[in-house]
From TrEMBL:
It comes from Ramlibacter humi. Residues 12-243 form the ABC transporter domain. The lineage of its organism: Bacteria, Pseudomonadati, Pseudomonadota, Betaproteobacteria, Burkholderiales. Keywords: Amino-acid transport, ATP-binding, Cell membrane, Membrane, Nucleotide-binding, Transport. Gene3D superfamilies: P-loop containing nucleotide triphosphate hydrolases (3.40.50.300). The keyword RNA-binding does not apply. SMART domains: AAA. This is ABC transporter ATP-binding protein.
Amino acid sequence: MSDPAHDGTPLLKVEGLSAGYGGMPVLHEISIEVNKAEMVALVGGNGAGKTTLLRALSRLLPCTGSIALAGRELRTLTPDQVFGLGLVQVPEGRQLFGRMTVQDNLLMGGYRRGDKAALSRDLDRMYALFPRLGERRRQLAGSMSGGEQQMCAMARALMAAPVLMMVDEMSLGLAPVVVDQLMEVLAQIRRDGVTVLLVEQDVQIALSGADRGYVIETGRVVLSGSAKDLVDDPAVQQAYLGM
């Protein structure tokens, strides 16, 4: 397999993807690209189809079209096979194992990895990246605040050693100061080489840290470009930024 970092091929290339539920179409011919070590924002209002797209990419939902990760077609693979290739999702609502400790949640993220020494090093790295989790490593995940649970969900995904991490509605219900901290973490892991697809209803937050963005409305990509160009676009300002 060629290395998308060196041959110009996008790490993730989605072409003509359509999907829905029970015969009801939700996504219509979606095409997006994410390059290696990029942070790309997928933004749009509630019900636009953002989470449906992530479910299709993770192979939790049937779809038509093409999904290629590092040049490999994913559409015929199972969710477990896709996870094994490094496409990892931080789901909306965190979906932690609430009656397990923080540390056990993180170890669950790396359950497929055989190198115990590397797993131990990454556990230490997570506690350095999220000091609050280090302080609460023996605490039950379900007893933490929303912000701490979001940190735990992100750290659990990172423990899977993702090639591409998809983050769904990270800011939902969190205080702005916590969201700022989480955006700083995303910037750090991007610098470390992890590619990020950030799916957000809060357009301002998503575009503040992204390289590029896509705007999705009623299951269709209606705008795309650099994050700066989208923030400056009058249509985006009027529809999403209250300007």
